[in-house]
Structures are given as structure tokens and as C-alpha cells.
Specification:
It is a single chain. The chain has about 80 residues and is an alpha+beta fold. It is built from two helices and four strands, in the order ββααββ. The strands form two sheets. A two-stranded antiparallel sheet has the order 1-2. The protein is extended and about 50 Å long.
Length: about 80
């Protein structure tokens, strides 16, 4: 970041081996508000899956899943493009 830029904080993060838009702000209160799950800020993710997704597993995501004792809320999955091979 340029040194003349005021102090900024990121809203959320990008995981390792991912790419995308990272929102920066100088308003810490806004950043916290956007990050809190209780505020129900809708997030969209696009992923690339190698192999063939299991339709039953995708259907489970629509009901929410529990992994290692942590419950994750339901998510909507849309397959945009399916390439063979």
C-alpha cells in the first residue's frame, strides 16, 4: 500500500490459495459490522471443483451441515458450468 494512504483495515479475509476482491476501509466500525454473521450480510463465493460433485452432498448443504461439532447455516449452491473430463 502507498505510504501516504491513511490507516486501513480489511473487511474479512481471503483464504490461502484463493483470489478475489478484498474490501478495505478506514472505518473500523463499518468493517466489524460487515463481518458479523448476526448482521446477515449476504456473501457470494465462486469455487472450482475438480471431479464430480455429489448431488446428495450438495442437497445437504441446503439444509445446513455440522462439521467437527460446528453447525454451518444452509447455503444455496448453483452449478454455473459443468465441463466433462
Amino acid at each position: 500500500m502507498p505510504p501516504e494512504l491513511p490507516r486501513v483495515v480489511s473487511v474479512g479475509r481471503l483464504d490461502f490459495n484463493t483470489e478475489g476482491l478484498l474490501l478495505l476501509t478506514n472505518d473500523g466500525e463499518l468493517a466489524r459490522h460487515l463481518e458479523l454473521p448476526a448482521n446477515a450480510w449476504l456473501r457470494h463465493y465462486r469455487v472450482r471443483v475438480h471431479g464430480h460433485p455429489n448431488p446428495k452432498k450438495i442437497a445437504q448443504l441446503a439444509k445446513g451441515v455440522t462439521i467437527s461439532g460446528i453447525h454451518y447455516e444452509p447455503i444455496k449452491v448453483e452449478i454455473e458450468d459443468e465441463k466433462r473430463g
